[in-house]
């Protein structure tokens, strides 16, 4: 019966699958490993393939009232990445209840965010017959361990997909590297399938070429395009070209000003002003960097800049909420609610903009920027997943501003900011 249902799924969907997706699904349904992992490039098709296999697995228990797990970094990302696609593909109405559960094929799907160390506490007290893990490298290890403990129902299977991270990430070392391992009863324990962006033959070739051209060289190209588990090394912003990025003055088409704040004392504090033109180019046009200055001194500088650069919005290091609160009370427009601090994601965002020369600087206005960008290197002692924390204050301020602004725009929060009478 299970094989008949699997064949029916393939027959119905085969015309909407790439050759790579179809091959993985066929292998998976024949071998039926306990853990099935698809990993590799962005936009490669691995997520939809794993979603279909998981839904097929749930359908094999159709009408039995069993419980299954779905995890993502947060419930929001899980909804955007997976649940919306399930609803459209199978024409079902997915509405999470107060416990973040929904019904599918007569079974209960229990959804969890797994990004934080305490998230595992919510994944307790039930038996699961299957688990879908979206971007499992973003899940905390304690949450991963707890999900394994829940998956004890007879016939349970686990389906994961993820983009690659550092080669020593626990998902790779403990699981993906063990692809092909069998249990003592000869049951296949894990199968891993690798994707590159070229495996998605449904993408327009021009789109693929554009993604490749806009992806920064080195670590991000290897991970996002080739789907490789590689460590970072050397200068972070390898595509920065001082001559192409240099400008004598701001262009006439500036539409917005944003600012980045990195608080300091023994190391220098930094405030940057960054102009954005109508084409989406960023111009670092003002830099103030000083040591041993108190918050009132910084507030005076920010007030002056708010007068000089109309409607500037600041993004500040949220590690000092006391300083942010004091600045707000003095009329400084800091959007700490929208500030994004994910270091590697922020670096990747800025690196992508440097590659296409969309981050520029005004000559003679940003001396520390030029000093720091060439010294900004990945710290191999931190497994290649963090920059060296020396002379990086301007780089931090730039990242807070640009990554936070881009992230807010990506999720439609610019319009919300307009509705609050704030130019964003």
Task: Describe the model.
The strands form 2 sheets. A 7-stranded mixed sheet has the order 3-4-2-5-6-1-7. The chain has 15 helices and 13 strands. The longest helix has 18 residues. It starts with a helix and ends in a 5-residue tail after the last helix. It is of the alpha/beta class and 424 residues long. It folds into 2 domains: 198 residues, Rossmann fold (3-Layer(aba) Sandwich), CATH 3.40.50; 178 residues, Nucleotidyltransferase, domain 5 (2-Layer Sandwich). The chain is elongated. The C terminus is likely disordered.
Topology readout:
Layout: H1 2-13, H2 19-31, E1 35-40, H3 46-59, E2 67-72, H4 75-90, E3 101-104, E4 107-113, E5 128-134, H5 141-150, E6 157-162, H6 170-174, E7 190-195, H7 205-214, H8 219-224, H9 242-245, E8 246-247, E9 254-262, E10 269-277, E11 282-290, H10 295-308, E12 313-316, H11 321-329, H12 343-355, E13 359-362, H13 367-373, H14 393-410, H15 413-419
Parallel strand pairs: 1-6, 1-7, 2-4, 2-5, 5-6, 8-13, 9-12, 11-13
Antiparallel strand pairs: 3-4, 9-10, 10-11
Helix pairs in contact: 2-3, 3-4, 12-14
